[in-house]
Design brief:
Blueprint (H helix, E strand, L loop, with lengths): L2 H23 L2 H35 L1
């Protein structure tokens, strides 16, 4: 087997193990709470990036 084939098999196995752990150990409520937290983090990051862009535009206008 080539290195690429071995890496592909390792990734597939890791996915299977990860899915099994999630399915068996994490209740749906925990996953939903995690999703909500990540969505809020993403929203804050997007807002911060927009604020930075606006500040950069204002700085450029001042120059």
């Amino acid at each position: 087997m080539t290195t690429e084939e071995l890496q592909e098999k390792a990734r597939a196995l890791a996915d299977m193990v990860g899915n099994e752990v999630v399915d068996e150990c994490l209740p749906l409520k925990v996953l939903e709470m995690t999703e909500d937290a990540l969505k809020e983090d993403y929203r804050q990051i997007v807002q911060a990036a927009e604020d930075i862009r606006e500040e950069e535009k204002a700085i450029e206008k001042m120059r």
